[in-house]
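Translate structure to sequence.
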């Protein structure tokens, strides 16, 4: 079930009552994109369960409240989480508190923003069919530049992602990268301003698609050169552990191929202990035409499932060094998908990813102290 790009509203349903009858309360962040995604899920659930209502409410999370500080500095203040999840909790903790307090029944997340280890009492109920997982190069309107290859030396590329910065510096060291934070509209406004320092910016293709801004995509940055973030383009639905009724509802709109891809990617990230502030990229794909929902479900009942390939990378923020590894595996369960991610992560660690990640962490701490 893909989230349609047309006819979606960013207007939230009024905050629901604590226990409205026949209502499954949906929580999300307060950004325009988050509301579009949550309302899209609510509409899909309503279509399959018309006897229920799915009111949407919003929560301001730490990552939205502070739009000035870098992710590294923000995540340094998140206590009680692993390094893999400190940055990701900037987008999740406050909403998860609402879920655990029984103020909402499910949360709609961008899967890339979900911690790889969820709090006690929470579980990843479903993963929704993935949109385009690529990053998008967005140039100024009427720009003559149509690709990264067109940009002259010294051109300024805006991004808030250390992964994007690292990959840009690795493959295009003649370009300059400058921090560019804010929601999608804010970053586009920064780019389009007459006084903008940016030649172009990098955003997620999926977010632009969902906001009906596909026309702003100048070029897509795709594999094998560029690897996207873990979970990018997919939505994760988080529910209370043991809430079998809500779990059954969200599973009705899940996309099994995306679930296996997402679990493999998240397992790699968990093993490497990297988060939003780590320059870790991935790419997953099923061999040939085996990725349709029906074929995956059919093969999942067989001893040998469809073949899933996972490519992982970690790149030094200055672009100087990159470590990659890949593997393929028959997957027919959550466990087999997670085993693939674990295996690729181990191959990366053997190749030196542990030392590279330790060096990256050291540089992060020095930057925070300054």
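Result:
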């Amino acid at each position: 079930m893909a989230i349609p790009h047309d006819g979606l509203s960013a207007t939230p349903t009024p905050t629901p009552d604590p226990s409205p009858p026949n209502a499954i309360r949906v929580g999300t962040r307060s950004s325009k994109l988050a509301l579009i995604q949550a309302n899209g899920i609510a509409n899909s659930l309503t279509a399959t369960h018309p006897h229920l209502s799915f009111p949407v409410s919003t929560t301001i999370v730490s990552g939205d409240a502070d739009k000035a500080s870098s992710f590294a500095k923000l995540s340094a203040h998140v206590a009680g989480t692993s390094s893999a999840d400190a940055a990701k909790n900037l987008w999740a903790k406050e909403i998860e508190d609402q879920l655990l307090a029984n103020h909402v029944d499910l949360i709609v997340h961008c899967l890339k923003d979900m911690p790889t280890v969820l709090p006690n009492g929470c579980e990843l109920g479903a993963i929704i069919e993935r949109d385009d997982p690529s990053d998008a190069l967005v140039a100024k309107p009427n720009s003559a530049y149509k690709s990264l290859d067109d940009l002259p030396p010294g051109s300024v590329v805006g991004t808030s992602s250390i992964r994007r910065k690292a990959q840009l510096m690795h493959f295009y060291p003649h370009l300059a990268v400058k921090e560019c934070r804010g929601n999608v509209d804010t970053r586009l406004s920064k780019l389009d301003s007459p006084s903008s320092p940016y030649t172009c910016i990098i955003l997620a293709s999926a977010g632009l698609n969902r906001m009906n801004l596909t026309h702003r995509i100048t070029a897509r940055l795709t594999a094998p050169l560029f690897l996207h973030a873990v979970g990018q383009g997919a939505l994760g639905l988080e529910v209370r552990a043991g809430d079998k009724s809500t779990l059954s509802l969200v599973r009705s709109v899940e996309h099994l191929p995306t679930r296996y891809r997402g679990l493999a990617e998240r397992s790699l990230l968990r093993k490497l202990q990297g988060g939003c502030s780590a320059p870790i990229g991935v790419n997953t794909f099923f061999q040939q035409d085996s990725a349709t929902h029906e074929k995956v479900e059919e093969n999942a009942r067989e001893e040998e499932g469809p073949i899933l390939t996972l490519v992982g990378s970690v790149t030094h923020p200055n672009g100087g060094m990159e470590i990659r590894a890949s593997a393929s595996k028959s997957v027919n369960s959550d466990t087999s998908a997670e085993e693939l991610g674990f295996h690729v992560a181990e191959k990366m660690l053997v190749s030196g990813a542990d030392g590279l990640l330790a060096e990256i962490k050291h540089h992060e701490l020095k930057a925070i102290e300054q």
